[in-house]
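Holo prediction. Input below; ligand is zinc ion.
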Amino acid sequence: MSLDRLIEVSRRYGADSAYVLLGGGNTSVKEDGVLYVKASGHALGSIDEGGFVRMDLSKLDGIWHKAYSDDDQEREDEVLADMMACRLEGETGRPSVEALLHAILPFTFVVHLHPALVNGITCACKGEEATGRLFPDALWVELIKPGFTLAKTVRDRMGGAAYPMIFLENHGIFVGADTIEGIEAIYDRVMTTIEASLVRKPDFSGLEYDHSAVSSITQELEQVSGQQVLFATNNEVRSFLANAGAFEPVSSSFTPDHIVYAGFKPLWVAAGGDVGHAYRVFEQEHGEAAKIICVQQLGVFSVGEKPLPLFLDTVAIAVYSESFGGPKFMTREMIDFIRTWEVERYRAQVATV
Ligand SMILES: [Zn+2]
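Structure of the complex:
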C-alpha cells in the first residue's frame, strides 16, 4: 500500500540530519479520496501508521468555499475546527498545520522538509532570484503566515498548474510526485544543485576551548534555568562568536522551527560578562527565558538538549546563505506572530523527541 512506501521514505529522510532535525517536516499520500497526513507531534524518523491522520479530501476541498474571519487567531481557530471535522471517523490525531497545503498539491506523494542546504536559499537575500535560476520549474512563495494563509496563497498562485517543488521563504520546501522514486529524484536534484552553487561550506571541525570557563558557566546556567545545560563549539561557531558584528548573521530566527525549539533569538554575552545576570535580564525583558546563550570567543550553551541542533542549523544556514546574497531572517512581525501562535505552541508541547 502507498502508506507503507510513505512511511519508509519518511523514516529514511527523518533519520538523516541533512534533511530533518528533531523530527521536523511532514509527509502525506493521497489514495482513494483519503489524505494520509502526518499528525502533529510525531517525529518522521520513527513514524508508523499511527503517526498519520486520515482525512476526507472532498471535505477538505469544502474549506475553500467558506468565508473565515480576518482576525488571525479567530481564523486559525475556525480553520482548525473545520480541519478536525475533515478527519475520518475515529481519528484522534491532530493533522499537521500544513495539511491544507498537502491536500491541494496535485500529487500522490508530498514530502515537506526543512533541510539546512535548502534553507540556505530560502533564508537568503537573493533566494528568489537563485531559485528562479537554479529551479525554473519551482514555485517561490515569499514569507507568509503558515497554515490557512499559506495554503490559500499557494492555491491562488498555482492556478491549476502542478509545481513539483515549492520553495517557501524562511521555511523550507514542499516536493510532490506521483511515485516515491519521483520524490527522491527531485530531492537529489535539489540538494546536488544547491551544493554545486556554494561558494563556501560550514567548517564544523572541533577546536580547543577553556574547559574550566565552560564548566563554571554551565553550572551557573543550570542554576538559573533549573535545567540541564549543554555546551558546543567548533570553528564555524567560534568565528560567528568573535565579536558582536560577526554574531549578527546568527542573531535572530530563520524559520518557525528555530523559534519553536531554540527561542526567538539567542542571548549574546560579551567575553567576561556576567552570564547569570544576562540570562535574568533577557527573561525580564522578553517575558521568556533564553534557550541559546552565545558567549563571545567561547561557544554556545543550550538550555535543554533541543535548542542546540537548531542553533547549529542556524549557523549552517547563515554560511550557505552567503552563496545567495547573504542571510535574511524572518521579519520582526512574523517572529512575533509565530511566538504567540497556539498551533506552534501545541507542537512544541507534544513533540515526542
Ligand atoms: Zn514546515
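Residues 211-350 form a domain with the L-fuculose-1-phosphate Aldolase fold (CATH 3.40.225.10). That is the main takeaway for now.
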